[in-house]
Structures are given as C-alpha cells and as structure tokens.
Amino acid sequence: MMVQSDWYQKLNDYFPAHEMKHPEQLEALVKTHPNYHKEETDEYIVLYAEFPTFVFIDYLLVTSRQRGKGIGTQVLDKLKQKKKLIILEAEPLDEEDKDTQRRMKFYLRNGFRKADRIVYTRQDDDGETYEMKVLYWPPFEENQKVIMDKMKKACREIHNFRADRYYGRPLADPDESLRLKS
C-alpha cells in the first residue's frame, strides 16, 4: 500500500527526486525508528534523527509562504539547544540553480560549516552518481574524521533503514559513499 501523506507530498514537491526517500520508508522511520523524529507545523517540516552524540537533519522545509521570516533559523536554533553536533547533507552549489545557492547561504548564515575534507557520493535509482556536501554545526570543535564517522552512522541507520525492502539495495553504502581527502 502506497502511503501518500500531505507532509511527504510537500517534501517531494520541494526536494530533488534523487534525494527523496520512498514514502513508506519515511513513514516507517517516523513510526518505528526510536531515534527518528518528525515535527510539522503550518510553517515547516523537519525530519531528523537524534543520536546520543549528534543530530542528523534528514529534511528541513519551510513552506514557501513562510520563507524569509526566520522560521528555518528558529528550527535550527531549537536543535542547537541540544548542544550536540548537527550534521546534514546538501546539494553542491550550482550557479544555474538558485535553490542550491539559497540553501547553502542559509546554512552558512546559521553557523554551519562545510566539511570540505569529506567526499560524499551517492547513486540514484538509475545508477547515476551524484555528489552531496556534508555540512555541520559544531557546539565544540570536532575533526572531520569524527564528523564522517557520524555521517556513516546516519547512512547505516537512516538512509539504509529497510532499504532492501524499498529499493533492493542500500541507499548509501557508507564505506563506498564517504571518504576523507588527504
């Protein structure tokens, strides 16, 4: 049975298709994964996993009519209050895509840093490789090897949650998708 909730449709309308998880996978994460959380209001939707030492933001969407009003910053500030490292992935800057520029500026303005030593590649359903950037907000100094290890945990536990059932393969094999530049 295909679950098509309103919040899923909003995410699907905004994020690139290759970044969207299967709707049933997201529903299962929200309902059964002990670390995965969904907060939804009329202004925003955030899906994230909270682990003992870090938070992984899977999706953050501020509704179009609310953008530019500080809502996204408020959501991030609420997560920052947990005093844990926050990790997320974002599309690389594309000079022809204003959304990638807006998203990157938003995260950098909110104190996130680019993990410039981490190379993160994924494959879409057609086997095409694409790159993602790992961004992080550190409540304390952290080296990028530690950040990469936490990102690997997010890949294993969140991206690959029941992935064989929904995709017939892991979505992001952390040992193949993530590496540290020398």
TrEMBL record:
One of its GO terms (molecular function) is acyltransferase activity, transferring groups other than amino-acyl groups. SUPFAM superfamilies: Acyl-CoA N-acyltransferases (Nat). Residues 1-137 form the N-acetyltransferase domain. It holds the Pfam family Acetyltransf_7. InterPro entries: Acyl_CoA_acyltransferase, GNAT_dom. PROSITE patterns: GNAT (PS51186). This is Putative acetyltransferase YjbC. The lineage of its organism: Bacteria, Bacillati, Bacillota, Bacilli, Bacillales.
